[in-house]
């Protein structure tokens, strides 16, 4: 029996695309839904490319009610994967999927995490601090931003000449290389 995954995204969907490509011929994993909270985001195009059903998240159906949770339960979703998803996950969803919601963060937590620390903001902060390394953290989601138990980290060396864009590209390579493999290992 295949594990049933739902992917949540907020933007272009590049991590979702990478996950869908990785599991495209899997006999143990099936992505049954891609949900996105930004109308017209590229994540919807990724879902169409892979023929995966979509769900448009709103504050009402995600934060102010349990509509999305009930929808996941109706689909028999077993795992929720946050792939560039920027909203805080409601407590009811965390409780319904204990240690079964996985997030990827573009820094080495606990540093550069928390509300407002995503995407280019993280890489700009890492650069401004003069860090010598950055990386990714894959972790379980709890009721707080970026504070769930760490599953996996990978590091990249930052050269003195690297700006935020170069840091982002190094981190992005780590995301592509590791995120689907770590999900696979956990499942």
Structure explained in plain terms:
By secondary structure, this protein is α/β, with parallel strands linked by helices. The chain folds into two domains: 1-98, Formyl transferase, N-terminal domain (Rossmann fold, 3-Layer(aba) Sandwich); 104-179, Formyl transferase, N-terminal domain (Rossmann fold). It is 37% helix and 23% strand. Strands 3-2-1-4-5-6-7 form a seven-stranded mixed beta sheet, covered by helices on one side. The longest helix has 23 residues, at 164-186. The model has no long low-confidence stretch (mean pLDDT 97).
Provide the fold topology.
Elements: E1 3-9, H1 14-22, E2 29-36, H2 42-49, E3 54-56, H3 59-63, H4 67-74, E4 79-82, H5 91-96, E5 101-105, H6 119-128, E6 133-140, E7 150-157, H7 164-186
Parallel strand pairs: 1-2, 1-4, 2-3, 4-5
Antiparallel strand pairs: 5-6, 6-7
Helix pairs in contact: 1-7, 6-7
């Amino acid at each position: 029996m295949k594990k049933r995954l739902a992917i949540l995204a907020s933007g272009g969907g590049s991590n979702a695309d990478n996950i869908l490509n990785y599991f495209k011929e899997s006999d143990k994993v099936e992505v049954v839904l891609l949900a996105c909270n930004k109308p017209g985001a590229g994540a919807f195009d990724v879902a169409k490319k892979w023929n995966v059903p979509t769900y448009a998240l709103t504050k009402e159906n995600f934060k102010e009610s349990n509509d999305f949770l009930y929808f996941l339960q109706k689909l028999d979703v077993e795992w929720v994967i946050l792939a560039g998803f920027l909203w805080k996950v409601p407590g009811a969803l965390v409780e319904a999927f204990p240690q079964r919601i996985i997030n990827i963060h573009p820094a080495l937590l606990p540093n550069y995490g928390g509300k407002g620390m995503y995407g280019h903001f993280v890489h700009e902060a890492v650069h401004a601090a003069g860090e010598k390394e950055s990386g990714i953290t894959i972790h379980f989601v709890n009721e707080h931003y970026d504070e769930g138990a760490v599953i996996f980290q990978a590091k990249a060396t930052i050269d003195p000449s690297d700006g935020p864009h170069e840091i982002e590209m190094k981190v992005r390579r780590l995301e592509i290389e590791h995120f689907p493999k770590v999900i696979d290992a956990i499942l």
